[in-house]
């Protein structure tokens, strides 16, 4: 377990460093506005990484709650979910992006910090084995924190993932 965590920690740190540097970041990047993708660019990057997405409305309009949109998603969020897929080797399907209908706040879906993914045995097991349990969110969702500080919360029908770095 310790060896796996060490490898995950190193890979996670490298992914975060790469994301910051690819966004033109420096040590002060945390105080700058996050770099964003438009829907088409994010969708192309996710597709190239083998990540699927779905929407109940079969659409990508950010202003429609039944769509799944990546418009104005943070580059670090896209890099984060791609990094998670690569580390976990799990199939990933995004069920929620930056569209209306999610909870608000600074670190929200709308502001590009979050994605929702479909739970699978592979995803569930990998998160629970490789991340630290971090208690329950105010809504009762169990939270797991990555070595980079990103938070994976298990809601009733999906994983709600917050990429802070």
From TrEMBL:
Domain of life: Bacteria
Keywords attached to this entry: Signal
Signal peptide coordinates: 1-29
Protein name stated in the entry: Peptidoglycan-binding protein
Naturally occurring in which organism (per UniProt): Streptomyces marianii
């Amino acid at each position: 377990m310790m060896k796996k965590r060490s490898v995950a920690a190193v890979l996670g740190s490298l992914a975060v460093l790469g994301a910051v540097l690819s966004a033109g970041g420096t040590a002060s990047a945390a105080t700058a506005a996050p770099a964003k993708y438009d829907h088409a660019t994010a969708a192309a990057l996710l597709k190239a990484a083998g990540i699927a997405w779905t929407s109940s409305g079969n659409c990508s309009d950010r202003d429609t709650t039944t769509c799944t949109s990546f418009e104005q998603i943070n580059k670090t969020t896209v890099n984060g979910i791609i990094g998670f897929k690569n580390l976990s080797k799990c199939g990933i399907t995004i069920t929620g992006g930056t569209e209306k209908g999610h909870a608000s706040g600074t670190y929200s879906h709308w502001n590009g910090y979050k994605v929702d993914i479909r739970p699978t045995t592979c995803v569930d097991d990998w998160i629970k084995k490789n991340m630290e349990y971090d208690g329950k969110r105010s809504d009762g969702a169990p939270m797991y924190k990555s070595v980079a500080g990103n938070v994976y919360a298990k809601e009733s029908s999906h994983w709600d993932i917050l990429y802070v770095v």
